[in-house]
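Hi F.,

I've been meaning to write this up properly since the lab meeting, where we talked about keeping a consistent format for the predictions we share between groups. The idea is simple: the sequence comes first, exactly as it goes in, then the structure tokens exactly as they come out, then a line or two of notes. No screenshots and no reformatting. I'm using this chain as the first example so we have something concrete to point to.
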Amino acid sequence: MKIYPLQFQPILKERIWGGTKLKTILNKPITSDITGESWEISTVENEVSSISNGFYKGKSLLELINEFPEQVLGSKVFQQFGKQFPLLFKYLDAREDLSIQVHPNDELAASRHNSFGKTEMWYVMQADPNSNLIVGFKEKSSSEEYLKNLESKTILSLLDTRAVQKGDVFFLETGTVHAIGAGTVIAEIQQTSDITYRIYDFDRVDSNGNTRELHLDLALDAINYEVVDAEKKYEKVSNTSNEVVHCSYFTTNFIPLTEKIAVSKNKEFFTVYMCVEGEFSLDYQSEIYQYKVGDTVLIPASLSEYEIAGTATILEIYIS
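Output, unedited:
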């Protein structure tokens, strides 16, 4: 395998709640004023990322994994997941509130959809004044209380709404009722899954006057009715990988980069960098690769020695 850092064509998604910040803030080539998502690295069925740089340009990520599984994924990841790429990386622009929703765990998702569950995390890249997110219940609830308030359209009275600002992080285990609020740009890291149970959508209609499908019955036994502590506090030491989230599905570190860092890692897992602010370069075998805010790069597992430099804020993600 020819080893180098891989980038991908963004898979852009129009959403009823989307806007234009993916272009104005993150430099994505959107052509619609309601673009809500940029899928940066994906192997979701029918939404597989295509490599946009270097020797393998035009080849899909799955094709490369099928050809060189351990070199791309790493020995540990390959042992655990085979030739599946287990994570999905996105940027989201919420011009309006997203629907209130919940994701199933691995067991429910496997039995119902032959899919992974959808544990995820959010990093707030930008937030307008008075922006907020919904993360779980204010107090311990129950399916009966939830259904009663859903029917009376008072479900928001049960849910924990958090004011947010740039740099805030929320870790959403499966079963957590949640919604991204209007005015936010989010970097999202999640299991490879597109399974979402929508439970309330503010009675919105699309341009044709249609409401979006709800999944009330499916959601009922997927919801965690306990109070959750979703917000993550973390260190921000310069030029260091500061751990933000560590779970069985992924680890995410926060790197405030101001100088050159030498990186040396084993070949057990791939690494992904999401540039959430500024610009940085990566030097691998004297070849320089340049990245800016909004860029996402996959470092194949067999690429184990390199340097990064610049003035940037980077999310570093891997499976450990």
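Notes:
The chain is about 15% helix and 40% strand.
The chain has a mean pLDDT of 96.

If this format works for you, I'll send the rest the same way.

G.
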